[in-house]
Every structure is written in structure tokens, then in C-alpha cells.
């Protein structure tokens, strides 16, 4: 095979020409990270840790948050070394090969469908609690703005994430302060639990840091200022850790482990009073909405990339792909096949393994065959010991998940 007909050159010849992306501001980039991460996961981790307790959850939030940030920075460097604007499956195809591309695309599919299914289920439960609507009608009302912004594209997603994420931070701050001032709040509840059940909490926690998928999409928005991409990732992940810690801390300190509901804001709001019930559940709906936009938008553009459908702004093709992204999760949510927390748990298991391995391989390939040399590059975080720790941790959690599903090891809730 000649130099001009290598697999890499053939792939580049078939890459779609990405639509010119509208520029994102730094705040919009940070908001995309926070909005994508703060979704169904933040509502479920208190319930998922109801046997293990808050301290094991805090341990995983710190560790998984750090490791996920590292892998996101791997993806960021790879995108900065690549002239074309490729999604994760496209980066895997170029730098790992066809098998890697399919595995990455499968990870995107599983994680996105699991997440969007959980959002459909959770939004229906929340609107039922708030207004007495049927869960299916509640999910349908949630679906309209969720899918509508996806149709409008990256800039609309960035702006929507920015304004709603700011609102979420304000609501969380008010609810946390109200929790700390409540006379029934007990700090000792944070010490309850059993560390033997800590391992299953890992996979739901891993799902909470799901923003690896949107790094390539952010790179399109930061094409005119690429040095801001890693900064936005680090700031966004730090804010994510803070919010993911404060919500279960408040819910558990207020209610105790035994009283946590599957969608945490329902029990949280009821314990604080009617005003808080509405505030907490409006926050929950906003969290699901912003995460839906982030993951759904990434899923949509990955489909365009993987099947080389051309410009993702083409109206008819965009509608067709949007239906593929949005309708199956709605159907799964009311099929009775999967619960809210289990949808997140098993999505976290599968996608976690892929996302522990692929960013490492993509970065190695990009450093060998990338077209550009970026001013910013990962440094100490590429140490082989750190990379081995990431891979082994996620593989071990996947083995545990399979054995617990078969009944050989204890489940987490």
C-alpha cells in the first residue's frame, strides 16, 4: 500500500466537512461542562449511596472527578492536534482504527441512550409530583424544549446551558443554605453507611462526570481561541464536583439514608417545605434539560460523523437523526424494562470502560500522527502509572457490576 493510500489517508478523504461552528464564550464552554454533568446523575447519587453512605460517595466523587478531568484533557489535546473537527468516534477512527471507532461509537450510544432514558423517566416523575400530570404527559412536555434546542444547534445549546446553569447554581445555593439552617438537619447522618457497598456507587458516580463526549463539540466552539479549551474543562469540572457534593450532602443530612427518594429532590423538597419542593424539583428539571442538550447534541453529531452524513445543519437530515436520538429513550422510559437509577448505572459501567481506554490511545495516536502542534499539551497527567490506574479501576468496576447483577456480589441499593 502506498503512502497516499494508507487507512488514515483514506479516512481523511472520507471525513465530512464540519459546519463552521459559532464561537463559544469561556462562560458558555464552562456552562456546557457543568450543564452536561449536572443532570440525572446528581439526582440519583444520593439514592445510589443509600447503603454505602456519604463518605464513600465523597471519596468516589473526588477520585473519579480527577481521573475524568485527566481523560478529558487527553481528548482536548487530541482535538487541538487535529485540523478537522471530529467527534470522539471520528478521533478514534483516525488515531486508533476501525475497531476503536466502533467501540467509541457504541459507548456514545449506550451512554446517551441510558442518560436520555433516565431523563425521560425522571422528568415524568417530577412533573407528576409538581403538577399531578401523568408521567408520560410530563415526559412529553419535557421533550419539547429538550429536542427543540437540539434542533437549533451548538450556539443555542451553549446559550441555554449558560443561563440555566447560572440559575441552577443560585437555586442550589438557596436550598443548601436552607438545609443547613433547618433544625432537623443532622451532620451525623453523613457518617452513616457501610463501606462494603461502596463499589457499586462508583459506576453511578462515573456517569455523573459524563462530559468527555462534548469536548470535541466544545473544541469547535473554541476554534478561534483553542488555549481556552483546557481551562474551560478544568473550571467546569471543579464546579461540577462542588455541585455533585453539595446536593447529596444536603439531602442525606436532612433526611438520613433511609428517607432518600430515587429522584433525590423529591424527598429533599418535601422535607424543607412547599417552596423548597417546587424549587428543588424545578432545579432537577433544569439539570435534566441541560444534560439532555449536552449529551443529546454530542450523540447527534457523532451519528453524522460516524455515518458521514455531511453537514449536520441540513434540515431534513438533522430532523431524521434527531428522531433517532430522541424517540428510542422515550419509548424505553415507559417500556418497564429499566429503572431510573439502573439506566444510569449500566450506562456508566459500559461507557466508563471505553472512556478509560480510548482517550489514552487517541492521545498516543494524535501525538504520533497529528497535523498540528498545540501550544498547550498534557504533561504529568500522561504518566503511565496514572493511565494504568485509570484503566484498572474502570475494568474492576465493570467486573463487579456484572457479578453483582448475577447475584454473586452485593448491589449498592
Automatic annotation (TrEMBL):
Sorted UniProt keywords: Cell inner membrane, Cell membrane, Membrane, Transmembrane, Transmembrane helix, Transport
InterPro entries associated with the record: Amino_acid_transport_2
Entry's localization field: Cell inner membrane
Domain of life, per lineage: Bacteria
Residues that span the membrane, as ranges: 24-48, 54-75, 95-120, 126-151, 163-181, 201-220, 232-255, 275-295, 316-337, 343-363, 384-409
Gene Ontology cellular component annotations, sorted alphabetically: plasma membrane
Topology in the lipid bilayer: Multi-pass membrane protein
A GO biological process held by the record: amino acid transmembrane transport
Keyword Transmembrane helix part of the UniProt annotation: yes
Residues forming coiled coils: none
Protein name (database record): Amino acid permease
Amino acid at each position: 500500500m502506498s503512502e497516499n493510500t494508507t487507512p488514515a489517508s483514506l479516512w481523511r478523504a472520507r471525513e465530512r466537512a464540519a459546519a463552521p461552528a459559532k464561537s463559544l464564550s469561556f462562560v458558555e464552554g464552562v456552562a456546557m461542562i457543568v450543564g452536561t454533568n449536572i443532570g440525572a446523575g446528581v439526582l440519583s447519587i444520593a439514592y445510589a449511596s443509600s447503603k454505602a453512605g456519604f463518605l464513600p460517595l465523597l471519596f468516589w466523587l473526588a477520585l473519579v472527578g480527577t481521573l475524568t478531568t485527566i481523560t478529558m484533557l487527553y481528548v482536548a489535546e487530541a482535538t487541538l492536534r487535529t485540523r478537522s473537527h471530529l467527534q470522539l468516534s471520528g478521533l478514534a477512527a483516525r488515531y486508533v482504527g476501525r475497531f476503536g471507532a466502533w467501540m467509541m461509537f457504541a459507548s456514545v450510544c449506550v451512554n446517551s441512550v441510558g442518560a436520555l432514558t433516565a431523563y425521560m423517566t425522571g422528568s415524568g416523575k417530577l412533573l407528576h409530583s409538581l403538577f399531578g400530570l401523568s408521567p408520560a404527559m410530563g415526559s412529553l412536555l419535557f421533550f419539547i424544549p429538550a429536542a427543540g434546542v437540539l434542533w437549533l444547534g451548538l450556539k443555542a445549546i451553549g446559550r441555554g446551558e449558560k443561563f440555566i446553569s447560572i440559575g441552577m447554581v443560585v437555586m442550589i445555593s438557596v436550598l443548601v443554605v436552607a438545609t443547613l439552617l433547618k433544625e432537623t438537619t443532622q451532620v451525623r447522618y453523613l457518617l452513616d453507611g457501610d463501606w462494603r457497598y461502596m463499589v457499586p456507587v462508583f459506576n453511578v458516580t462515573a456517569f455523573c462526570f459524563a462530559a468527555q463526549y462534548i469536548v470535541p463539540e466544545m473544541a469547535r466552539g473554541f476554534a478561534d481561541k483553542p488555549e481556552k479549551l483546557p481551562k474551560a474543562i478544568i473550571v467546569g469540572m471543579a464546579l461540577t464536583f462542588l455541585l455533585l457534593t453539595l446536593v447529596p450532602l444536603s439531602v442525606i443530612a436532612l433526611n438520613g439514608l433511609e428517607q432518600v427518594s430515587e429522584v433525590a429532590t423529591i424527598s429533599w423538597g418535601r422535607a424543607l417545605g412547599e417552596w423548597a419542593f417546587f424549587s428543588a424539583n424545578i432545579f432537577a428539571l433544569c439539570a435534566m434539560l441541560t444534560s439532555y442538550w449536552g449529551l443529546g447534541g454530542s450523540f447527534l453529531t457523532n451519528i453524522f460523523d460516524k455515518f458521514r452524513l455531511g453537514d449536520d445543519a441540513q434540515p431534513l437530515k438533522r430532523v431524521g437523526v434527531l428522531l433517532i436520538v430522541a424517540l428510542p429513550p422515550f419509548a424505553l422510559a415507559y417500556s418497564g424494562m429499566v429503572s431510573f437509577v439502573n439506566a444510569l448505572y449500566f450506562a456508566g459501567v459500559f461507557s466508563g470502560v471505553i472512556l478509560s481506554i480510548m482517550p489514552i490511545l487517541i492521545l498516543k495516536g494524535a501525538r504520533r500522527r497529528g497535523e498540528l502542534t498545540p501550544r498547550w499539551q498534557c504533561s504529568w497527567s500522561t504518566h503511565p502509572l496514572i493511565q494504568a490506574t485509570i484503566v484498572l479501576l474502570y475494568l474492576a468496576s465493570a467486573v463487579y457490576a456484572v457479578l453483582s447483577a448475577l447475584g454473586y456480589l452485593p448491589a449498592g441499593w
